[in-house]
Amino acid sequence: MRFRPLLPLTLLFIIASCSQQRHPDKQIFHYNESAGIATLDPAFAKDQSIIWPCRQLYNGLVQLGVPTDAGADTVLCPIPSIARRWEISPDGLTYTFTLRTDVSFHPPVSRTVTAADFLYSFRRLTDPTVASPGAWIMANVSSMEAPDDTTFVIHLNTPFAPFLSQLAMVYCSVVPHEAVEKYGKEYRSHPCGTGPFQFQYWKEGVKLVLRRNPDYFERDEQGHPLPYLDAVAISFIVDRQTVFLEFIKGNLDFMNSLDASYKDELLTRDGKLNPKYAERLDLHTSPYLNTEYLGFLIEDATAPLADRRVRQAINYGIDRRKMMRYLRNNIGTPGEYGFIPPGLPGALTESLYPYRPDRSRQLLAEAGYPNGTGMPRLKLCTTAGYLDLCKYIQQQLGTLGLDVQVDVSPPAALREQIAQGRAQWFRGSWVADYPDAENYLSLFYTPNRTPAGPNYTRFSSPTIDRLYLRARTTTDADSCRAIYSRIDSLIMQQAPVVVLYYDQILHFTHKNVRGLRSDAMNTLDLRRVTVR
To answer: Is residue 3 one of the residues assigned to a domain?
Structure first.
């Protein structure tokens, strides 16, 4: 094993300092992570706070992107990363990957990545002693093999069209056995990957520093080595108002999304950048594969929510467009369609639940609750961050004669209530694990009704289950898209959810930041970013 010299002490001192003083001779990208970072081990990259730094540190077989010859409306799809190319057998069961030969692990491992490293990394995902939350990705894998250094083969039990997209998840990053075995559980703070940046310094709760990987294998379209930045510095300021002030002062280069407390300061009512910041800031927006919804517990539901007509009445009784304008500054798209968000193949394009209070009243009367008479109080469970939105829903449904109580719980407590089936009506959201409609429809598949599964409403339909299984094993894209649309339409007829809106990504940067790319997965891609 050979070792390489670490970063010069002068640069290390600059970027590890808690000061946000600017250094014009170095390109350092600063951002804040209010949620903190629990680990830098990709096997535990279950939320955005971990995914973002791990994206800088690691690579997998494939990554998500848009092919260079694709049209403007092409959705994210798997493109090469460490795998130069791959072949899928006609029966959809065998994936054969051919690896690059110019990819090395970061120091101190500093050796070429081989197929055996992927074999080790993927087996580690399913190791019960590791207990990775990403183990489910390998559930359909029957076997794997590395016949030589540049060939990696995966055999599936059943065909599964989105499997390549799953392999693009951070969970499936390659890691070196030397570092994992040396550090054990402490590998979380001693990461060693192949990514555009490598680990330099971490004082938990204060600062994380990643420095440029001088041996990174990817190059830009002109043949220049990536990344352009010298380093990435991540702070952990918890108070969101302080984060906002640090960003406005220029001590942070980037801010993701908006807190309600300063939403109206940065945005107009129509979701545009406030003109007073036009000379200092840029706003980058794109659709986000995130569906925000209200879920009804269908399993063991009692009156009135056991009645589909009541659930449909609630769907028709919320003016989502007004909600988006006054509570969200038109950030996102009103959720009048299906559960699959726009932009994914299979998403519905016809408005299913426009605001129709007259239809709501008709359905309530048919269900035996004319003008809400005889309707018991409905408890809507949420968190403080969505209180204003749920208060709006309370007011809207109150005009129909429905008595809605908004119950606020801490996020962890609400997640536990939902998982255990103790919340009859709750606010939820689903951010795509991978860009395929199957990921959204899995929330309504009967076997996923376990506490650990994503079917939080405990919805069940034999017809939908059959269609869902057919779609999972269909390799023809057009046929799969048609099945997805049919499933989504059938689900919305049963109304186990109220889709509120399809979210939108907001990235704020200063004018000196260039090259930041946004995509529907809200990936933080810093490979082509410059800070001048």
So the answer is: no
Residue 177 and residue 296 in one domain: no
480 and 516 part of one domain: no
Structure-block tokens of residue 409: 């719980």
How would you write 469-515 as a 3-class SS string? HHHHCCCCHHHHHHHHHHHHHHHHHHCCEEEEEEEEEEEEEECCEEC
Residue 460 CA to residue 496 CA, distance in Å, equals 10
484 with 273: CB under 8 angstroms?
Answer: no
Question: Of 412, 418, 396, nearest to 299 (Cα)?
Answer: 418
Cβ-based neighbour number of residue 221 at 10 Å: 7
Q: What CATH number has the domain bearing residue 439?
A: 3.10.105.10
pTM of the model: 0.90
In a domain, 266, yes or no: no
> Residue with structure tokens 């039990």?
157
Domain annotation covers residue 249: no
Torsion of CA 37, 40, 42, 46, to 10 degrees: -10
Query: Which DSSP state fits 307?
Result: S
Q: Please check whether residues 177 and 194 belong to one and the same domain.
A: yes
Q: Over the stretch 140-151, which tens digit does the pLDDT of each residue have?
A: 999 999 999 999
| 350/448 same-domain check | yes
Taking only the tens place, the pLDDT of each residue in 82-110 is 999 999 999 999 999 999 999 999 999 99
Range of the domain at 427: 288-504
Q: Report how far residue 393's alpha carbon sits from residue 402's, in angstroms, rounded to the nearest whole number.
A: 11
> Residues near 349 by Cβ (< 8 Å), separated by ≥ 6?
337, 342
Residue 313: count other Cβ atoms within 10 Å of its Cβ.
28
In a shared domain, residues 308 and 199: no
Calpha distance 386→394 (Å, rounded): 12
pLDDT tens for each residue of 15-62: 444 344 555 679 999 999 999 999 999 999 999 999 999 999 999 999
| 354, part of any domain | yes
For 82, 122, 187, 273, the CA distances from 43, given in Å and listed in that order, are 18, 9, 11, 38
pLDDT of residue 301: 78
Shared domain for 71 and 191, answered yes or no, is: yes
Residues 227, 349, single domain; the answer is no
Calculate the alpha carbon distances from 380 to 188, 342, 436 in Å. 38, 26, 30
Residues 209 and 298 in one domain: no
Residue pair 76/64 in contact (Cβ under 8 Å)? The answer is yes
